[in-house]
Every structure is written in C-alpha cells, then in structure tokens.
Amino acid sequence: MLRGLAIILIVLNNFGHKINGVHPDNEFNYSFDRVSGFLDSLANPSSILPLELLSFYSPYGVMLFIFLSGYGLVLKYEKGNGTSASNTAFVVDHYKKLFVMQAKGLAFFLLLYLTFESKEIIAIVPFAKQLLLTGNILSHHFIIPGPYWFFCMIFEMYIIYRFVLRHFSSKVILLIALASLLVMGLLEPNGKIMTYVRMNIGLALLPFSLGILVARQWNSKWTFLDSRWKCFAYFIISFILLTLCKFCFYSWLIMPLFIIVSSISLVKLLVINQTITQTLVWFGGLSGVMFVIHPALREILISRANEPGHSFEVLLLYFFLTIVISYMIKPVFSK
Fold first, then answer.
1. Residues 38, 90: contact at Cβ < 8 Å?
2. Phi, psi of 168 (to 5 degrees)
3. Residue ranges covered by each domain of the chain
4. pLDDT-based confidence at 123, cuts 50/70/90?
5. Dihedral sign computed on CA atoms, order 15, 20, 26, 28
6. Contact 133, 99 (CB under 8 A)
7. What percent of the chain has pLDDT over 70?
8. Cβ–Cβ < 8 Å for 279, 4
9. For the chain, what percentages of helix, strand and coil (3-state, to nearest 5) are there?
10. Spatial distance between the Cα atoms of 180 and 204, rounded to a whole number of angstroms
11. What is the pLDDT of residue 284?
12. Is 133 in contact with 152 (CB distance < 8 Å)?
C-alpha cells in the first residue's frame, strides 16, 4: 500500500509543479521564497490553489520509495534468502535490474519525444551517463527530464548499504544519518553544492536509514500504531510537524522522518477500507512502470496544461494515460 501511495504522489507532483504559476517545493535545495510564494497563494487564492497544495505536499513519494528500498534490503539480505550473496553478485544483480528498467523507460521517452515533440538528434552522452548510473555523480544538474536521477541515487545507496551500512548496528547507522544532516546544515541552503549532495546520497541517507532501522527493529509487540485513533493522532501530529519543518532550513533537513511517520499512519488508517487497500496495492504493483514512463507523457502534455483554463483537465488526462499505458505495457517491462 505504501508503494501505491508513493507512486500516486510522484506522478501527480512531477506534473503539477511544472504548471505555470505553481510554486515548486524545496526538494534538492532550500529557499524560503518558495514557501513564501505558497503562503501568498493561500492568502490570495486563485483557480490553481489545488495545484499549489498538490505541489506543496506531494514531492514525498520518492522519500517513501527510498524508505522501502532500505527496508527491503534488510528483509532480503539480513533476514531472507539473500544472506549468502557475494558482493559481486549483489552489485551486478542490482545494476542489471536498474539498467533494464530505466533503459525501457528511456526508450519509451525517446519514442514519444521524437514522435510528438522533436525530430532533432538527441545527445547521446546524457543517456550514456544515465544508463551507466553515473549521471548524478558526473553532473550538477538533471541531465534528462523526469525522475531518472533516482536510479543513479538508489544505486549509490545500494552500494553504501552493501559495503558500509550493513556492517554497523542500527544505532551507528542512525548516527551516520544524523551526521549527514549536520554536514548539509553547514552548506549554503540554495547553493549548487547542496543540490549536488542531495542529488546523490544527501537526500536519501535519512529515509534509507530509517527503512533499515524499521526492518531490523520492528516488533509485533509494538503498539503505537495498533488502533485507529493512535494512527489518526500520529498522522495529524506528524503532518503538522512536516508542514512546520518547511519554514526553516534546519528543520527541513529532518522532514523525511515526519513524511514517513505520516505516510505509514495514513496507510494504517486506510487499510480498514478494502476497496482503498486493493486500489493502493494495485497501484503498488504498477509503480515501476508508472515511474519510468510518466516523464515522457509529462513532456508531451505539459505545454497543453499551461494553456489558460486547461490545467486540471490535462492533469487528469496525463494521470489517466499514465495508468492505462502502464497497465498495457507492464508485460513488456516484466520480462
């Protein structure tokens, strides 16, 4: 369910914040001007206010993917059948999976882009960097539109987990994550170095570490989310705290903690409804394909969304097409 919630947020956010007049959220660097712009939109509401709210609260699906990645690695390589895997097998296996998935996504991107947008020759080097999973390390900016940077970043986290984090206790891993926050706290909030650091491991280390800690330490005897009212309380409190975190650079750095707590609490609340549960699980099963194809659809449709009066209609069309096409081509991506 958490993966399903994550992909819905990712797909909607990556389109919504590109619409003219919508203020983007702070993701890779921090500027209070973005928060101020959002507050101005609340004080002077317009027809795009729902899109402003979407942009302000939806960039966190990637954080959930990162959290689930750390969680899944522990279940497989510390508690499951992957404990005997060699370092070479680990690296090759994960590189192969990421390479194949993003290669299919990039092929879809090129097909649609060349068909509908441009007949110009596409530069080969950015795609080569991306396929080699070195795009983030070798660039200070996103080399291909869309969330393909995630593949490079998560591969870095896999390597760090395998050769560093898995050898340490949960407490030491938490200290490493906190140390990374202290280092980022010394950087210029809206500078190029901050962007570069967060494009790589800076954004990921805290949610990834939390995924490891939860997978290692989770105990069926824990009772803090065992009732609907507790889940509701944790959701409201963590949602308020993540909102407040946006108003200060230093608190913004720890915001992933509240994103994860609020999301888990929300999913625990929604699980009482079977229809919602099945829907989110279905989206979770489709999440990999949706993740890699939606950037192409965004590039095709975003100019239409920026035409006066068409933002919501095109957003809904884009979301619908992402779902339908993902469902249709999932068998190809599953091979």
1. no
2. -110, 160
3. 2-334
4. low
5. positive
6. yes
7. 92
8. yes
9. 75, 0, 25
10. 10
11. 93
12. yes
* DSSP state string for 130-172: HHTT-TTTT-SS-SSSSTTHHHHHHHHHHHHHHHTGGGS-HHH
319-335 per-position pLDDT tens digit: 999 999 999 999 887 76
Token pair 């889940």 is found at: 231
* Residue 327 exposed, middle or buried by CB count within 10 Å (0-12, 13-18, 19+): middle
Would you say 299 and 145 are in contact if contact means Cβ atoms under 8 Å apart? yes
DSSP SS3 for 185: helix
Give the pLDDT score at 332: 83
Residue 165's identity, in one-letter code, is: L
> Quick one: pLDDT at residue 161?
96
**Close Cβ partners of 110 (under 8 Å, ≥ 6 residues apart):** 122
SS (H, E, C) 55-109: HHHCCCHHHHHHHHHHHHHHHHHCCCCCCCCCHHHHHHHHHHHHHHHHHHHHHHH
pLDDT, tens digit (0-9, with 9 covering 90-100), for 290-307: 999 998 899 889 888 888
What DSSP string describes 296-330?
Answer: HHHHHHHHHHTSTT-HHHHHHHHHHHHHHHHHHHH
* 205-220 pLDDT tens trace: 999 999 999 998 876 5
pTM over 0.85: yes
CA distance 111 to 124: 15
Residue 7 tokens read as 């992909």
Could you tell me which residues come within 8 angstroms of residue 6 by beta carbon, excluding any fewer than 6 positions away?
A: 61, 62, 64, 65, 68, 263, 287
How far, in Å, are 127, 130, 145 from residue 119 at the CA level?
17, 21, 17
Q: Could you give the C-alpha distances from 117 to 62, 109, 131, 302, in angstroms and in order?
A: 27, 11, 23, 11
Residue pair 93/99 in contact by the 8 Å Cβ criterion: no
